[in-house]
Structures are given as C-alpha cells and as structure tokens.
Specification:
Strand content of chain A: 15-25%
Distance between the termini of chain A: 33 Å
Strand order of the largest sheet of chain A: 13-12-11-14-10-15
CATH architecture of the largest domain in chain A: 4-Layer Sandwich
Oligomer: homodimer
CATH class of the largest domain in chain A: Alpha Beta
CATH topology of the largest domain in chain A: L-amino peptidase D-ALA esterase/amidase
Radius of gyration of chain A: 21 Å
CATH superfamily of the largest domain in chain A: L-amino peptidase D-ALA esterase/amidase
Largest sheet of chain A: 6 strands, mixed
Chain lengths: 386, 386
C-alpha cells in the first residue's frame, strides 16, 4: 500500500525544516531497475512552476531513475534563481545515485512566490539519499513528506495475481487549499513494461481520473503525475491488464483527493449520460462542477436543479433544453427541462452527492467530480496569505 | 434620471402581490412614439426562460411599443404553461394599448422553477396600464418594481445638449443573489434614430459594459437589455454621438450593478493591457475574474499575484510567462513573472480594487469587472432555497 510496494523501488521521507511545523518535507523515490521506463503528465497551465519546467525536460525521453519531492514551498514564480535551485537538487540526487541529473524528476508543493531555503533543502536531500529503504515504512514516510494541507496521507496499491504490482502516493487538497495546493502523484510498478506501455497506460488513466477532478475550477502550477517501472517482478503483463491496474490506482487516489478537499462538506459525483460524445459529456460535467451557485446550493442542501440547467446551458454540447432530465441522489427533480419529482424527496445530508444529467442526445457518458462551495473554503483561501 | 426621462415614454410600477414582501413588482414602459425603433440583446444561455423565448421573437423585427416586467418569479423552466403565461401577458398589454402582442417585450425575474400566479399578474398588469404616466415618479416606481435582492434601485440618464436624452433603469445583484438573479435593463431615448442605429449602438455598448461584468462566472437565464426610441425630441443625432450616449448610460448602470453585487466586499476592476488583441485581453480578464482562489484572496485583503498568474496561465492569449507584470492598486507586485515590489505596500481596505495585468504582447486593452468571493456570497447562495 505504498509507493515502495512494488519491487525495485526504495523510498525515504525526512524533515528538512522547510515546513514551519517541522514535519517531514522531503521525499525521494528511486527506481533500482532493472528497467528505467517512465511516463509523466504535467499541469496544462502555461505559467508553470520551476520544477515542472525542469521535469518536463527530464522525463521527456521516457527514462527516470528517481523523483525528489518537497513540501514547504512550490518554487513557483521565483524566477531564474528558483530554476537553478531545482536544477541543483536534481544534480545532487543524480550524484548520490551515480546517474545523470536529466534522469531525476523534481516536484515541489507549498506556497507560491517565496524561494526555497537551498541549504535546508540540500541537507534534507542528502539525508534522504542516505535513508533510502524498501518496504512500506519508507513509502509511508515519503507519502507523509509531500503533504501540505492534506488532512491525511494518500497511498494506493493494486496487486496482480500474476505477480506484479502498481503502488502509489498522492498529495493534494483538491486545489482547495491556501496557496494553490498542488496535486503530486508518484506511481511505481515492478511490471516489466516499456516506455510506450507506461505512457499509454498513464495517459489513458489520468484522462478519466485526475483530469476529471475539478474541486474549484482553479488550475495548479505544479501538478505532476509520474509513473516509473522497474521491471523487477520479471513479469510482462499484457498492455490492457497493466493499463487496468494503473487506472485502478489512479481512480483510488483521485477519490482520496476528492474526499480530502479542504473546506468541502460534500463530494459531488456528476454523471452526464445521453451525450452525443464523451467530449460533450465532460464539457457539461465541468460546467456544472464550476458553477459557484450550484456548489453553494449543495452546501445549503438545496437540490437546485435550476442552477444545474443554467450551467448546462452555457455549453456547446448537443441537447435540446426542453428534453433535459436531472436527478439528485436518485430523485428526478427535473424532467423535460421543467419540474419533475418533488425536491423535498432529496436527502442531501450524506457527504456523497450523485447528480445525473441526461442530455437525451446520444450514447456517451462521463463522470466529473467536484466539491461544494462552503464557508470553510472561503475561510481557507482568504484568511491565510500565500 | 429614469426610464421615463426621455420624451415620448410613460411608465408605471405597481404592487401585484407576486413578491412576498408586498412591494412593487410589476413595471410597464410604453413608447408613445412617433418612432417605434428598438433593439435588444438577451442572455447567451441556451436554457432560456420563457419571457426570453417570447421576447426574442417579439423584438426580432426591431419594433417594440412596450415592455412589461415583473419581479417575484423568473418564469424559468416552468414548461409550456409558463410560456403561455408570458404570451397572455403580452396580449393583455397589447390589448390595453391597441397594439399587437408581438410588439410587447416581456421580462421576468425572481426564483427559477415556480410558476407565476397568473391572476395576480393579470390584475397588476391591468393596474399598470391604468396608471401609466410620464415624468420621474413613474420611472422611479418602474425601477423599484423590478428589484429583487437589489439593495437599491438603479437609474441612469444621459442628456445631450442638442435636446435629446437617453434614460434607463436596471436591476440585478451581479448574479450573486439567491436564485440566479437576473440582469434586466430598459433604456429609452427620444432621439430620432432608426432601428439599425439602435441596434448598432446597443450592441457596441453592451459588448464593453454589461458583457464584461462577471460577478461570479454564472450566466443567467433571463438577462435582457432593451433599448426603445420614441423620436419625440425631433432631433436626429449623428450615429457616433448617439452611440456614445448609449454607452455612457450602459456604463453607468454596469457600475451600479457591480457596486450592489450581493455579498461582495470589493469591486474589482481588472485591466488587461499589452494584449495582442482585444479578445485576448478579455479572455485573460475573464479568467482572472472567475478564479475563486483570486477572489477569495481579495476578500482576505491579500494581493496574491501568484493566483493571478495561475489564472492567466489557463488562457490561450499571446504572452510569455516570464514577461508578465501585475499591479494591484498601483503596486507592481509581480514583474517579469516573478516577485516585484513588496506586497505589503498594497492597501486593500478600500472597496475598489484595481488589478492591472501587462501581457507585453501588443497594443490591445480591455477591462473586466468582478467582485470578491466572500462568506456573505456563500451564505446568500446556500442559506436560501430557490
């Protein structure tokens, strides 16, 4: 149940003093091979943090030997000096492993703007290199070291009966935390897979998991999802089985991110069905997920289907307004674009909320996840400077 | 200073009992000519309310003799019966004026979902027809009758030294109110202008005023802006002078809507300069205006330029991330994509906030207006069912 669950990986988590709390804040995950295949996806934001600018370059060849991650500072919008810090960190890890800096991915998370304290970081990375270990404890320390405002660490494991494993860790409070909390995910596997298989599996999985989690519509500057394969199990699964396991691990971590979104009272699952295309379904789901009026209504336990229809109406998806059906927690409160079953029948006390929107325009479907808009969200994102 | 300030117009506002408060809730504005030129713009939302579906048809020929407006119910998503209510209301006004129903625009505002009480509405419209009057008192009553959660009525007047006038009224709490508060605007003029001149002036004005007010990213279902010209001054201004006056009236009403946005602590003016095109400037301004993290930071009096850059980075506008400059209330807190002048120097206690973003990519500029994200916003939109 950790980033070091798969054979061929060692991990570490240490306290470098970057976090004011004194908690663990530097993590390291190393692939001991024999394989060195990797794939990564990064934030689509054009204003990227320095570690993303570095790591896009480092992982571009599909070969990654290690990833070093820090909390306590995003190293974002810190200028050329911040990029030098990232570069030096990769070099330090590479020297420790007898590798090239361009085989080292770097991730940072925390507040935007301030520079990282390089001596503290350097000391922490040195101790992480010295403390690398296999097994669940090292993986747990790594998962803890990347937490910022997360209330709990997030780990996943998918074990194949054929003798290979996908493990992983994640951090992120659903973009709901002070300072643009970043989603960082590291997945590891001992399956014997090549770079192309890694890339295809990761892209397919993130497209329907992390990419459909939209807590507050804000896009981070540091998001990174990395998959590394050691091949240490000696088992070469077929591509579909491998992709399935990667998808399950990503889905598990996505749901953990959703349920730990800061300030949220409800986890909202928006299923759009009857769409002419999957793109239409996703566009409609996102539009609803980004409606502050809808999200505030859910916080107020009001199954306000009018606000849902108003959000659907802003999209370019194929539908006729007078044919739309909407259910909230199983009650079809809107039928054919007008009032349906009584809204009083909807129980919005549970944390989980299921919204179903039927566009009546085709066979495609998609689910987007979001959270409600609460006083705690406003408090978290206004009361603290970042 | 009212919708009846221009010659050739009569107005009325009566209490029909549609509002639980018993306040004024039915307004009527009639053009007595000699001209009957008109132009209108409506919400771009594809899920439109019944009065919008009707009025788009009625105003399509550029001829409108009267507009009847009600608060106390949006008549939105009320099905075919709701459309019949709108149609009957237009017929009643038309009969009272000896006109055709297709010369009558209908606007409704209030909660989505519930049907309007047709007997009450009919009685109110009858009394409004009987109470039509010229002069500021009648215009004031009309402006009051369209208020929902507005804390004050909104009127404007632009008087030309050449002897013609543009007057107007508006309602709307910047989309921040419970139940998707709708923006309704009626402009009147006694300038002797034809339909094409009305249409060109209105479209040019709304494009840079109401269209750039984005309080919370949510798009209404009932938005209507109507301009009617009576020609009663006998003065035919040149098109540029007329367009300028319509623009000034629209700008004035836009600022009144901004400053009355419910739950807002700050009115935020986002000026994007150095853009390659006006479209780019608007896209960037809107992206920032829709960032909950940025809006919550302003509520917390935190000049968080990192959240601004992160929002800019989600757009397709032409810019280089390492060249962006950002000022908040005149302090250039971000220079060349990194830290600039000290954020401590920014005073965010005044209600008005000026954000300037320089893309360094061209000569174009645009301003978008929004409000901050506050506890009062969440309260207003969660505590009351709609």
């Amino acid at each position: 149940m950790s980033v070091s669950a798969a054979k061929g990986f060692r991990a570490a988590g240490v306290a470098a003093g970057l976090k004011a709390s004194g908690g663990l804040d530097v993590a390291l995950v190393v692939n001991d091979g024999p394989r060195d295949a990797a794939a990564a996806v990064y934030t689509a934001n054009r204003c990227k943090a320095n570690p993303v600018l570095w790591s896009e370059r480092a992982s571009g060849d599909g070969r990654v030997l290690a990833v070093v991650l820090n909390s306590g500072g995003a190293n974002c919008y810190t200028g050329p000096e911040g990029f030098v810090t990232t570069h030096r960190t990769a070099e330090q890890v590479a020297e420790g492993l007898g590798a090239s800096a361009l085989d080292v991915v770097v991730c940072s998370t925390g507040l935007i703007g301030p520079r990282l304290d390089e001596p503290l970081l350097r000391d922490g990375v040195g101790r992480a290199l010295g403390g690398l270990a296999a097994g669940p404890e090292a993986g747990l320390a790594a998962a803890q070291a990347i937490m910022t405002t997360d209330s709990r660490h997030k780990q996943a494991e998918v074990r194949s009966p054929d003798g290979w494993t996908v493990g992983g860790m994640a951090k992120g409070a659903g973009m709901l935390a002070p300072g643009l909390a970043t989603m960082l995910v590291v997945l590891t596997t001992d399956a014997d897979v090549d770079r192309a298989t890694c890339a295809a599996a990761l892209r397919a999985a993130t497209r329907v998991t992390f990419d459909r989690l939209d807590s507050d519509g804000c896009q981070s500057t540091n998001d990174t999802v990395l998959l590394m394969a050691s091949g240490a199990s000696g088992v070469a699964p077929d591509a579909a089985a491998f992709a399935g396991a990667v998808h399950r691990a990503c889905h598990d971590l996505t749901q953990q991110l959703l349920s730990d979104a800061e300030g949220a009272d409800h986890d909202i699952h928006i299923e759009v069905r009857g769409a002419a295309s999957e793109d239409d379904a996703v566009e409609v789901g996102r539009a609803v997920a980004r409606s502050n009026l809808f999200k505030a209504a859910i916080f107020g336990r009001d199954p306000n289907w009018g606000r849902i229809l108003a959000a659907v109406g802003t999209t370019r998806a194929a539908f006729e307004p007078d044919q739309l059906d909407v259910a909230v927690n199983g009650v079809w409160v809107c039928k054919a674009g007008g009032p349906g079953e009584p809204a009083d029948a909807v129980d919005l006390t549970p944390r989980r909320v299921d919204v179903t929107i039927d566009l009546k325009a085709g066979p495609a479907t998609a689910t987007v996840w979001t959270n409600d808009l609460t006083h705690a969200y406003v408090h978290e994102n206004s009361a603290y400077s970042s």
